[in-house]
Structure formats: structure tokens, C-alpha cells
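Regression report. Comparing outputs from two consecutive submissions.

Submission 1:
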Amino acid sequence: MTAVPTLDPDRRAFPRRRVLKRGKIVFNSSKSVIDCMIRDLSQGGARLACSQTANLPETFSLVSVSERELREVRIAWRQIGEVGVQFVSEPRKALRLLV
């Protein structure tokens, strides 16, 4: 009898690490800002926890408050209370944190 290979349930292109960092979701020409928590990070993306996932646009800016960095991101998946994003730009310094 031959063993059937199992698929890895975590099909990410890059390994992720758990973090707990404050973030800000910025869109609508910086007129809309939503607080979030960055829960997982990898080289290619992040998992965010926030209360308003249904109304987020497909692309937006993500600010990591502690690093004072901003990245452009694209939504990879969404569910109630969480959203997975793919980084589409290199990090750059956030000139202001948009309180």
C-alpha cells in the first residue's frame, strides 16, 4: 500500500511570524483611516484584525505604527474581523501617522 501525500494547509509563498503591532488602514486619499492590529507578518504580506473588513477597498495603504512605515497592499482574502493582504510596494517611511 502506498501512502497518499497530504497537502500542506499553509500554502503561503513565505513563512509567517506572529506579531501584535498597531496598524492603520488608509484609503480614500487619506480621508479614511481605520485602526487595526497586525497579527502575522511575512515577506509577502500580513494578516490584519479590524472591525470593518467588509467595506475595505481592494487596495489601500497599511501603516505600521511602531516602525513608522507605510506599504501599499492588496486584499488576498477577507472574513469577519480579519483580512489577509499582499504587499505590492516596498516599505517607505510614513511622514505622519494619521492619528
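Submission 2:
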Amino acid sequence: MVRTIGFLFLFAVGGAQAQQLHKCVDARGHTSYQSDPCDAGQREIWVRDATPEPPPTYEQQRAAQIRQRRQEAESADLRRMAGTNWASVRSGSGVGVSLPAYSGKNPDACQAAKHQREATLKAAGMNRNFSLLRKLDDMVWKACN
């Protein structure tokens, strides 16, 4: 029983030691990266500390969450003050799309402009060009914003 406890203690202490990474090159120029020191006949290029960082504590995780929430709130306040408050919406494809927040214009005029754009694009078919698309988008933008 005492031997088992002693063995477990040595095993636990052994796991807490610093870990190292060795870069070794043999006589033929082959490079190897290993946790053990280089063998005889190999040249050691460098040794790096490879001890993993401990995971963050609950307090550290909580502090990071609070920082992130404060930054998001500050960002939202700055956007609101600058007049660039964007509402995040999802399109039918599930991809996030940003649209400006509703500005108080007539929603019927906005819908009418969108329908007119769709009808024009349907009539044009594949004979679309940048100029046409720009004019239609500008028309919708003016009606909706």
C-alpha cells in the first residue's frame, strides 16, 4: 500500500515538470522534433519550453466575459451616437446580412420600390448591367432610408 502511494506521488510530481521540445539534426541532415534530448550523433539546434499553459480559472473567464460585454455595449453606444446603428437580420439563406435600422420613412413606399426592382429585374432577365442594378438599388435605398 505504501509503495503504491509512493508510486502515485512520483507519477503526479513527474507530470508537473516542465516539458521541452528539442530540434535535432542528424549527420544526413534530417531534422526531427522530439520531447527527449537529441541522441548521440545528432546536433541540437534549439530547445524550447513546451509546458502547456493552465486553462483559465473561473474568475479569469468571468472577467473576460464582462470585458467583452462592456466593449459590445460601448460599441453599440458609439454606433448609436454616430447614427450608424445597424440591425442584424438573417436572410432566407441563413447568412447574416446587415441592414440599416428603420428610419421612419413610409414602409409602403419601400415595399413598392422593392417590388418595382424585382419586376424590372425579371423583365430584364440576364440582360442586366451594373448601371441598371445601381439605379434600381439607389431607388430602393431612397425609398427605404
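Expected: both submissions complete independently.
Actual: both completed, but the second showed a warning that disappeared on reload.
Relevant detail on submission 2: Residues 2 and 8 are 10 Å apart (CA to CA).
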